[in-house]
Design a protein that fits this description.
Elements (H helix, E strand, L loop, with lengths): L2 H16 L7 H34 L2 H11 L7 H11 L1 H10 L2 H18 L8 H23 L2
Helix pairs in contact: 1-2, 2-3, 2-6, 2-7, 4-5, 5-7, 6-7
């Protein structure tokens, strides 16, 4: 795993480890789960940005790499379809490998995270439980590994 990506994962692991501190307080656990959902959406975005930036740094002229880095910095709300479009913009093979290796469960997890994040940041209520957010995190880690190993192939 890429060092920058590993560092991002370590931060998330530490935050998820704190979830057990709130397990006896349903209200705090619910708030912490919503907080983790927002961060998990950011983790998806950061992971793709890191992987694509690393790829372009290794494979492209510095001007092209600089351009790509600046352009992807504006990308948000990376649900399944937007990830598919982003990967496809670079390579049909990346998109095909992504589509072929992502399970329905992983797709649903990504889409749920982004939809819940949207509702959370706009003050709407969502029902994200600690168990559910942990399952989402497990799915996201698998998706990021698939993108790194089977799509972008650093």
């Amino acid at each position: 795993m890429n060092f920058r990506l590993y560092s991002e994962k370590q931060k998330m692991d530490q935050l998820f480890a704190r979830l057990k501190d709130f397990i006896d307080d349903d209200e705090l656990a619910a708030h912490w789960s919503r907080y983790l959902c927002v961060l998990l959406s950011g983790f998806i975005e950061n992971s793709l940005k890191i992987l694509i930036t690393e790829y372009t740094n290794k494979k492209s002229h510095p001007n092209v790499s600089n351009y790509v880095s600046k352009q992807i910095s504006f990308i948000t709300n990376l649900n399944y379809e937007r990830i598919q479009q982003l990967l496809g913009a670079f390579s049909d093979n990346w998109r095909s490998n992504y589509e072929a290796n992502i399970t329905d469960e992983q797709k649903d997890a990504i889409d749920s995270i982004v939809a819940n994040r949207h509702n959370i940041v706009h003050g709407r209520s969502v029902g994200v439980s600690p168990v559910q957010i942990k399952e989402y995190y497990t799915s996201v880690l698998k998706v990021v590994n698939i993108i790194e190993d089977k799509c972008i192939c650093l």
